[in-house]
Structures are given as C-alpha cells and as structure tokens.
Amino acid sequence: MIKTLRQIARVGIVTESPPAADDELRVRDALERHVRQVLGRALCIRQVDAGSCNGCELEIHALGNPLYNVESLGIRFVASPRHADLLLVTGPVSRHMEVALRRTYDATPDPKLVVAVGDCGACGGIFGAGYATLGAVSSVIPVDVVVPGCPPSPTRLLQGILTAISSGRVGPGLHAKRFS
Amino acid sequence: MPLSRRLEQARTMPGAPGLRAIEVHPAAWRDLAQDVAAAGGRLLALWGSHASAADREVALVALVPDGAIAATTRLGVSDDCCPGIEDVFPAADRMQRAMYDLTGICSTDPDTRPWLRHAAWPAGVHPLVTRDPPTPPALPVDDYAFVRVEGDGVHEIAVGPVHAGIIEPGHFRFSVVGEKVLRLEQRLGYVHKGIERRFTELPILTAHALAARVSGDSAVAFSWAYCQALEGMTTVRTPPRAAWLRALALELERIANHLGDLGALGNDAGFAFGLMQFMRLKEGLLRATERALGQRYLLDFVVPGGTRVDLTSDGSASLAEYVRALVLEVRGLRDIYDEHAGVRDRFFATGTVAPELAARLGLIGLAGRASAQAFDLRVDLPCEPYESLAVQKCVQHEGDVLARVTARFDELLESLRLVRVILAGLPAGDHVAALRAPTAGSTGIGLIEGWRGPVAVALEAGPDGTIRRCHPHDPSWNNWPVLEHAVIGNIVPDFPLINKSFNLSYSGQDL
After folding, report:
1. Which band of pLDDT confidence, cut at 50, 70 and 90, is reported for residue A28?
2. Which of B21, B208, B339, B442 maximizes the CB count within 10 A of its CB?
C-alpha cells in the first residue's frame, strides 16, 4: 500500500493542463467549454467497432489515459447506446456488422450525433467496399463529422468530437427532447 | 512414417528461415498431421486455394521442435473433400470451416456449420471463387446453431456483437448455472472484411499496407511477415540495418501492447490505479516511437526491401532515454502488482489452462508460454537480427491469469532489454533496398513472432506484379477455442479478466 501511495505521490497529476501556445491543449480548452456550453452536462459516447482493424480503437482508448483524460472534460464512454449522446463509429462497415450498427443507432436516443472515425470510417480505407464491406459509415447511418487518419491521433479525435458537438444539431433542447 | 523421413524430400520454402516445404497426396494428409503431432509439432495455419475446379490445394504450416514445415496437398477432380485433421489438431476445426466458406473446399470435419460466413453472402457461394458474390437484398440476419446446454437451472447469457467496452465485436454465448460458467461458445466473423480477396486486387509491392491492417495492434508483425515472404521470392537481400530496424519496431509494438494489457488487467481486477499508471507509460512510449520512427502505431513502417524511414540519431537518443526510464517504472509497478493481495487473489487460479490441455489444444504464443508451451519464433526459428540477440524465452507453468500477467511482465522487461541492445548495435548502411515484383507462380511464407504469438503470411505471386493468393494468419485462430475451455467452471464476472488475459484479435481471425 505504501508503495502504491508513494507511486501516486511521485507521479502526481500528469494530465496536460491548458496553458496557451500548444494546439493540443487549445483543443482541450475549447472542448471543455463547448461540452459545458452546448450540453450543460457530460457528453456520453458509445463506441461502435463496425469492422475496424482495431487500430482506431487503440487511439480511442488513449483518450482515457491520464494525459488526455477526457473524463475531466466531462466526456464519458458508456456501456449502452441507450445512455449515449454520440456514437463514435469505426469502419469499414462490414456487412456482418450492418444490422448491429443500425440497431445500435436506433437504440441511441434522439437527438444524437455520429462521428465516423478513421480512413475506413470515412471511405472504407484500404478495404474499400466489396462483397464483405459497405465502406463509409455514412453508407449505413447518418454521419455528422468524419475524422480521417489511419489511425487518427487522440488529438484529432478530440477535435472531431468538438466539431460534432458545436454543429448545433444537439443543444439546449437535448434534455427537453429526451424527457418529453 | 516418422516426420524426419518425410522431411528428407523437403525443399526450402522461401521466406522464413528454417521453413521446409513438402507436398503429399490427399490420402496421406491425415498421416502427415499425425506424424507432425507425434514429433511434438503443432498446427499454426491451414487454408485453401481454389484456382479452378481442377486446381484446388490445401496448405498448412506447422511448428515442429526443430523448425517449421509448410505442407500442401493437391486435390484431384475426383476428390470431393479434403481429409479433416481436427481430431489431431483441434485448432483445425474453425480453419477448415473458414476454408469451405471462402473457397468451397470442404473437409470431412463433422462440424459443417459456417464460420466466417454469416448471411452477407448465400450458402454455396464462395467469395474467393465467385468474383462477385450476390448480396442478399434484405438485411442479413444470422441464425447460428449454438450448442444448447440443458438441465435444471441452466440458462444462457448472450453477449455481443457490440460489447460494453471499447473493443472489437464478437458474440459470446454463455451457458450458466447461477454465476458459474458451464460452457462458452464463441461466434466470430463479425468484422470479416474480405481481406484475402482484397489482397488479390492490390499490387504485390504495395499490399504490405493491407497486411499491416489485418490486425492493427500487430501491424509490424504482419507487415514484416508479408515482406519476409515477398523478399524470399526475389533475389534481393534486405540491408542488415533494415532487419535491425524492423526488430526495433516489433519490440516496440510488443512493449506497447503489453503495457496496455497490464493496465487493463489491473483494471479488470478492480485496480484502476494500474490502468492509469500503465496507460501513462504507454502514451509516453507511443510519443517516443513517433519521435523516433514517425508514427505512434507503426502501420506503415515496414515496407518491401526495408523500412519506410530511417531512425534519426535524435530519435534514437530520446527512445533510449525513455526506455531506460521505463525499465524502472515497470519494475516499480510490478512490485505493486505483486504485493497487492486483492489483485493477486483475482489473478491467481483464474481461467486456468493446464499445460497438458494447452498441449492438446495447441495453445501458442504468449498464452501458450504461460501454460508451459515453450515456443518462441525469435528463439526457435530466428531471422536476422534475432539470432544474434539471444532472446530469453519467458515460460510459466500455472496457465492461469497470473501466469499470463507474469509472462507479460517478463516479456516486457526482456523487450526493453532488446530495444537497448538493438539501439546500441544498429548497423550502419541503407535502410531499404529496391525490390522488383517476383515472377508469377512463386511462393513464400513469412513467420514472425508478434506480441500475441506467431504470425504467418503465405503469399503467391500472380503475373505482372499481382497477387494470386495471400493468406494472413493470426495466432488468435489457435487460441480463441482454448479460451472456451479456460472459462469453464469460472464465474461470469471473471470472464472479462480471463478474456483480457488472452487479449485475442477479432479482426485478425475474421479476415
């Protein structure tokens, strides 16, 4: 126990705080402001792997590490689409995941946002569209924002999420719509 | 016939060192499998190729104690099915079913349920044979015949394909009494992307990029195995510096994945501290990797003939510095994991695969080594530069989650040592050599020990720089079925922990 406490004290808080000049940090700053302004509360994200090679998932995982620390910005990954405001979807949508993706989308309460992640989510990437894949996420469900990259860095992912919530498709009416 | 007699007629297969190729008559296919098993060998990969009705071939790669063999059998027009070898090597079952789904080559395996085909293309159509398989007009809904467990109080829990966490999709069907798991049956194939078909549409000199994306967490292993196969089919010799840089990349990939897994395993045992600490270290490693080699994840680093970029002296220095610090950090966290009674209690005797069962089922790679299956390509079949690195094999005997955690700590520290040795001994010279496409019909097989286990890529060139057939094989094929055994008798809430301790690939086996 003493070693654990010592380690915690030694490492301290490594979350990158937002002083000016760093682009990466400006994104964080803006993101937190937007999350609060637009939603007035936490943003709940449900991630859906709809055919990814798992590369994008590794970078999405990194959002939760202590350096990006998205939970401190009010962003949470949730276990069910029924709890989500935003779907973060990786592609290229495999035909075997098409039904699951549609059902996940339908299970997410309106109004909802969809961010397609990675080159594959954007256009099918190296896999393209074929007998087993449909390509872009937008060929299956409506997409608000696309974050290309193979895989996109955590910073780009944060920017994509920021872009989506500032699009105005969800806003102060979110609560009213959900609970009306 | 003993395997050694068979191998007297073997030729050298281009690609991985020590790989010998033999061809047998279909009637001798099962004998061959039994000879391999009798010699202490195990099946790595099995796949089929259907060029025409008169040209159908089944191939396998097996790891044997003193090397590896690639065997093929050519089916005649009168041969209906290939003899199944699932009773000799249980891991062959899913591979044979997938072979039928994709190529139409059936086996005598009594389990004829589809494996990679759900409902995206109709039964009787095979995407590696029919160029444009028809797509069902309605939304495909899968109806799979799970084995049903009956008895008082038995009920089923169906999980997936969309899981609760940020992980790949697959379906798990648990049959349980109370919280105790009686049986787990997996249904995979949800992320089937048609990778083997896609290979045949790409130029052979650029398809390494697709190989790297078979399973994104094993990008270096797959792209290296692809390039090893390809380079073996040509006369070009890759520069020594390229081999050392690839080994550097492969060990960095291993370190990154082990750091991530050790954190996630702590988290699944209720120790969020471990997750945060290891994710912090992993992020640092990814940033150091990007400074040194240009990418956080090395999806485009290994290219035919060498590597895409060279290591700069600045990058080398900062990587060496980070790795030096990482050794101390990892040792400190290992002490904490070792001394934490709650964590050890969750790890100990959970999800056990005893060595005898592991041998019988053919468990390989990291999970295999945690169950006393002491095979590591870097030691047993080393390619350049591994023959001069003296890699220490990390073997445990208990086969539980704790053993797989211990194996990860040992391999992590060993890889950190290797990175330092590689950085110190990196030969000078070019990092890439020009490569021309091999002649049509030439074949090669690459074998690389990825972080999860041995990765194989079998490649056959077509005319004019095309690919006739490419089969990438992830060790998850071999280990997924063993996970079904590892959870028997455990409680449902321990499944995420047991699953994570294997951390198998969905994309890599769904292809």
Report:
1. low
2. B208
Contacts for B325 with CB less than 8 Å, ≥ 6 apart: none
* Candidates A65, A103, A140, partner chain B, best to mutate (most B CBs within 10 A): A65
pLDDT at A91: 86
Q: Is B150 buried (19+), middle (13-18) or exposed (0-12) by CB count in 10 A?
A: exposed
With an 8 Å Cβ cutoff, is A133 touching chain B? yes
Nearest to A117 by CA among A80, A159, A79: A159
State residue B363 phi and psi, 5-degree precision: -65, 135
Q: Which residue of B has its CA nearest to A135?
A: B193
Partners of A132 on chain B (C-beta within 8 Å) are: 120-121, 127, 192-194, 197
pLDDT at residue A18 greater than cutoff 50? no
Please tell me the distance from the alpha carbon of residue A169 to that of residue A175, in angstroms, as a whole number.
13
Q: 3-state secondary structure string, A73-95? A: HCEEECCCHHHCCEEEEECCCEH
A124, two tokens: 């099918």
The pLDDT tens digits for A145-159 are 999 999 999 999 988
Chain B residues in contact with A128 (beta carbon < 8 A): 198
Structural domain for A121, as ranges? 2-169
Look at residue B431 and give its three-state secondary structure. coil
CATH of the domain at A31: 3.40.50.12280
Q: Which two tokens stand for residue B51?
A: 């060029």
The three-point CA angle B325-B331-B332 to 5° equals 90
Which residues pair with residue B61 across a beta bridge?
Answer: B45, B70
Residue ranges in chain B whose pLDDT is less than 70: 136-142
Interface test with B, best of A45, A54, A56 (most B CBs within 10 A): A54
Domain count, chain A: 1
Nearest CB neighbour to B198, from listed A4, A57, A127 = A127
Query: For position B44, what pLDDT does the model report?
Result: 97
- Same structural domain for residues B432 and B323? yes
Question: For B293, phi and psi rounded to 5 degrees?
Answer: -125, 5
Instruction: Locate all alpha helices (DSSP H) within B126-206, ordered by sequence.
Output: 195-199
Residue A30's pLDDT is what?
A: 67
The residues near B29 (Cβ < 8 Å, ≥ 6 apart) are B58, B73, B82, B83, B85
Residue B151 is given by DSSP the state S
Which of A11, A53, A61 minimises the CB distance to B214? A53
Nearest by CB to A130, which of B198, B213, B299? B198
Question: pTM, whole model, 2 decimals?
Answer: 0.93
**B95 with B244, same domain?**
no
**pLDDT value of position B268:** 95
Name the DSSP class of B134: P
Residues B364, B382: contact at Cβ < 8 Å?
no
Asked whether A54 and B505 are in contact (CB, 8 A), the reply is: yes
pLDDT at position B478 is 97
Task: Look at residue A177 and tell me if it is in a domain.
Answer: no
Show the domain range for B419. 195-478
The set of long-range contacts for B281-285, using a CB threshold of 8 Å and a minimum separation of 24, is B281/B326, B281/B329, B281/B330, B282/A62, B282/A65, B282/B256, B283/A62, B283/A65, B283/A66, B283/A67, B283/A68, B284/B322, B284/B326, B285/B252, B285/B255, B285/B256, B285/B259, B285/B322, B285/B326
Residues of A in contact with B283 (CB under 8 A): 62, 65-68
Four-CA torsion B164, B451, A89, B128, nearest 10 degrees? -110
What pLDDT is recorded for position B143? 79
